[in-house]
């Protein structure tokens, strides 16, 4: 789809003719509210179609000029591509002209046209002075050198010239707003009889089709685009850059408010802490102090928050960008590179604005180390941002990563095409360097375990995974374990591939002596611990030795501490097999082996457990394969 969509904004001081110029350009009166008609001022942003052909479609937003409606003004210009700065020839540059200009600069709007209106009301000398004043005011701003068009909206003088400048300027702009995931910051919510709840806004990016499932954030409400309108005309789809009204199913008007965001994918970040760069206005009236309460505007949202500095405690004036953080009282929906405005609640004053570096801000220490970290975050390319997140998380789902990195789906896909990225179980993403790091870590952990516990076969897999959490995700650990060529798994036990359990060298002779003593005791033995104690093996090591003997089949545990040497056990078993029939009694076994009940009963029960025999009434019967 090659068609491009743009929204331009009318900005400027109150009563300088923004609404009148909009009507002259579009033949639509954007002051639709009764109060607006009665007071002859704009209170809410108004919208109208301006121009459309096969290549482009241009809409106009007319924002309020009164200082009391700055919030509405900021909400209205959210997402515009070009601004027409309206200045009345009879008054020239006024306070709201300057404030709107500053706000537009902070919002990153780089294309502008100046409409010098009401020229029929003044002598030529006066509007020449106004033109010079505007030119001087624009020096050093992004609008320096913007064309200034002389206009009288009532007589129509200059209106077509303004329109020509708009279409000519906007036509040169490339737009990527159709790409990315659909996002529409809501600036109006209302109901239509028989239809239900309708929201309006300028589509920041992406596209949505009628009938698709949508989400209202930050509340997380699910809905559906029942119907779509663009300038009161039905549309099957709406694209980034267009002004749209969307009829939402299942949601009531009171569930949604201006500042909420309509999205197609719920992975957008909902946050109360954002890392930012802040630029201050030139002529602050009051000092900006550490942790000062401010109003933060981003998209169409306005929330109270605090400015947190990491390299200063106050500032009055600076031409430099300030790396800092905004901690908000309410959650907002935002992503990297979004713009924001900061205003003082009282006395009311625009402080500055800037760009969001990271919507997932954390707690940082005061100092240059944090400033360096924030600068690095800002400069990161998509792959660097993804790698930074993955290094912290180790692994993450696609939606989680999109939230944490503020990458678009297309940007993420482009990064994942690089060979170094790995997808686990079809959904979990990680980096090959982390897989190598974890592989080495597990290998070293097994090596350390074998050095400390050389008599054990290895580590229980569940215990190993638990010991690696929460630093390493369970899915990642299991993936790396499945890839390992340096280790083996026997049931639940994992060990190094070349490892064989053995007695530590310093205990080897004593261990051999204890086993020899046990063997020499025959079938009438002392508790196994006695033989270990006699050889000077410490109490804290005895359970490890017994476990090792049992696992290596050097002894057979009859009951508790009663253990026979394996050769003694095998000899006793052979004697019974050779000297009994298919069944035998306890008394027969006692006579053959010469044992008291103290050893006889545990030995026979051991035979049952090992599957050599089973009880048959008052006797024991050999299993077929044993006899």
TrEMBL record:
Keywords: Cytoplasm, Elongation factor, GTP-binding, Nucleotide-binding, Protein biosynthesis. CDD domains: SelB, selB_III. This is Selenocysteine-specific elongation factor. Its main location: cytoplasm. It comes from Rossellomorea pakistanensis. Translation factor necessary for the incorporation of selenocysteine into proteins. It probably replaces EF-Tu for the insertion of selenocysteine directed by the UGA codon. SelB binds GTP and GDP. NCBIfam families: selB (TIGR00475), small_GTP (TIGR00231). The keyword Ion transport does not apply. Residues 3-174 form the Tr-type G domain. It comes from the Bacteria. It is found in: Cytoplasm. GO terms for molecular function: translation elongation factor activity. Pfam families: Beta-barrel_SelB (PF25461), GTP_EFTU (PF00009), GTP_EFTU_D2 (PF03144), WHD_2nd_SelB (PF09106), WHD_3rd_SelB (PF09107).
């Amino acid at each position: 789809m090659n068609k491009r969509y743009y929204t331009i904004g009318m900005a400027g001081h109150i009563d300088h003719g923004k609404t009148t110029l909009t009507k002259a350009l579009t033949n639509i009166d954007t002051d639709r509210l009764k109060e607006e008609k009665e007071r002859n001022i704009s209170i809410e942003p108004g919208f109208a179609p301006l121009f459309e052909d096969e290549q482009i479609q241009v809409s106009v937003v007319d924002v309020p000029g009164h200082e009391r409606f700055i919030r509405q003004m900021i909400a209205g210009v959210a997402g515009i591509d070009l601004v027409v700065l309206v200045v009345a020839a009879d008054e020239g540059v006024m306070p709201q002209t300057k404030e709107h200009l500053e706000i537009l600069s902070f919002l990153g709007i780089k294309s502008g046209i100046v409409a010098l209106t009401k020229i029929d009301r003044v002598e030529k000398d006066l509007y020449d002075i106004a033109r010079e004043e505007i030119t001087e005011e624009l020096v050093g701003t992004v609008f320096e050198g913007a064309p200034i068009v002389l206009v009288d909206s009532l007589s129509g003088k200059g209106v077509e010239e303004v329109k020509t400048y708009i279409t000519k300027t906007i036509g040169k702009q490339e737009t990527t707003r159709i790409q990315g995931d659909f996002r529409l910051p809501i600036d109006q919510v209302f109901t239509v009889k028989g239809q239900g709840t309708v929201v309006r806004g300028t589509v920041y990016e992406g596209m949505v089709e009628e009938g698709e499932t949508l989400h209202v954030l930050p509340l997380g409400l699910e809905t559906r685009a029942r119907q779509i309108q663009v300038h009161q005309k039905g549309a099957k789809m709406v694209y980034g850059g267009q002004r749209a009204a969307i009829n939402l199913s299942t949601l009531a008007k009171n569930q949604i408010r201006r500042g909420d965001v309509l999205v197609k994918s719920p992975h957008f970040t909902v946050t109360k802490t954002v890392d930012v760069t802040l630029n201050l206005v030139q002529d602050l009236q009051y000092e900006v102090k550490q942790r000062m309460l401010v109003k933060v505007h981003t998209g169409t949202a306005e929330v109270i928050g605090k400015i947190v500095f990491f390299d200063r405690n106050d500032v009055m004036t600076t031409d430099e960008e300030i790396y800092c953080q905004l901690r908000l009282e309410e959650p907002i929906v935002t992503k990297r590179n979004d713009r924001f405005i900061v205003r003082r609640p009282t006395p009311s004053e625009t402080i500055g604005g800037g760009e969001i570096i990271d919507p997932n801000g954390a707690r940082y220490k005061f100092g240059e180390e944090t400033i360096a970290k924030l600068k690095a975050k800002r400069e990161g390319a998509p792959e660097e941002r993804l790698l930074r997140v993955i290094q912290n998380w180790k692994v993450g789902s696609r939606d989680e990563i999109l939230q944490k990195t503020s990458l678009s789906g297309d940007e993420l896909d482009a990064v994942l095409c690089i060979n170094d990225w790995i997808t686990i179980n079809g959904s979990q993403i990680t980096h090959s360097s982390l897989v190598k790091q974890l592989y080495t870590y597990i290998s070293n952990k097994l090596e350390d375990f074998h050095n400390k516990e050389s008599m054990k076969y290895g580590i229980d897999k569940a215990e190993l995974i638990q010991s690696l959490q929460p630093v390493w995700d369970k899915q990642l650990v299991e993936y790396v374990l499945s890839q390992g060529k340096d280790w083996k798994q026997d049931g639940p036990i994992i060990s190094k591939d070349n490892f064989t359990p053995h007695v530590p060298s310093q205990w080897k002779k004593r261990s051999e002596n204890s086993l020899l003593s046990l063997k020499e005791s025959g079938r009438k033995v002392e508790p196994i611990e006695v033989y270990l104690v006699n050889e000077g093996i410490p109490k804290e090591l005895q359970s490890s030795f017994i476990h090792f003997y049992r696992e290596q089949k050097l002894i057979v545990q009859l009951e508790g501490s009663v253990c026979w040497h394996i050769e003694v056990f095998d000899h006793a078993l052979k004697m019974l097999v050779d000297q009994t029939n298919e069944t035998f009694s306890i008394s027969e076994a006692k006579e053959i082996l010469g044992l008291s009940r103290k050893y006889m009963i545990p030995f026979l029960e051991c035979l049952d457990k090992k599957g050599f025999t089973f009880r048959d009434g008052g006797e024991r019967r050999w299993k077929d394969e044993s006899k």
